[in-house]
């Protein structure tokens, strides 16, 4: 059964008809059986399908609730696609992230609070340490988009980060040791954000991703 099968679609329709939101209790199993005129096993299979997608959450001892439908349920599929494409699969993941971030960074130039800029500066310093730079790099990008009024942007960036890291680990691609270059790229992004220049911010982000693609090619 997939999310496109008729019964999961009908349950999704029921959630929407009732105006249920994340965290709201789902109709009981008996209600679903009665309303949808299907067997208990069929309902349970449909719920399992929706749970795999994060649309339904089962809290043991409490019941079944509407889930958050996190984009991270897509991460295994993206990772698999990347692994199937070898290094070119990794490059494809990076390209999608670049398209999102180069466009989005323009909106942030001159708009970030001083505390956020200071945090980004701290993360740049951490990137200069070999054992910390990958973790700090990821947090830098997470911090950039955390305050946006569109949470999907940050979630998508994080989704592609996760898929990239998992795929790279699956290919046993060694961690880059170009810590100075990585830190410098991010400091250039931060400098453009501080000056409030959207074009400079976009160019700095583009240079960052171009460097990452070059290192993958090498």
Please tell me about this protein's structure.
The structure is a single chain. With 218 residues, this protein is mainly alpha-helical. The chain has two domains: 64 residues, Winged helix-like DNA-binding domain superfamily/Winged helix DNA-binding domain (Arc Repressor Mutant, subunit A); 145 residues, Four Helix Bundle (Hemerythrin (Met), subunit A). Helices cover 69% and strands 4% of the residues. It contains ten helices and two strands, in the order H-H-H-E-E-H-H-H-H-H-H-H. It has a two-stranded antiparallel sheet. Strand 1 and strand 2 form a beta hairpin. The radius of gyration is 21 Å and the shape is elongated.
The name of the CATH architecture of the largest domain is Up-down Bundle
The radius of gyration computed from the alpha-carbon positions, rounded to a whole number of angstroms, is: 21 Å
Write down the overall mean pLDDT: 90
Helicity, in percent? Answer: 55-70%
Main beta-sheet annotation: 2 strands, antiparallel
- The structural class is mainly alpha
- Can you identify the CATH superfamily of the largest domain? GntR ligand-binding domain-like
How many domains would you count in the coordinates? 2
Topology order in helix (H) and strand (E) letters: HHHEEHHHHHHH
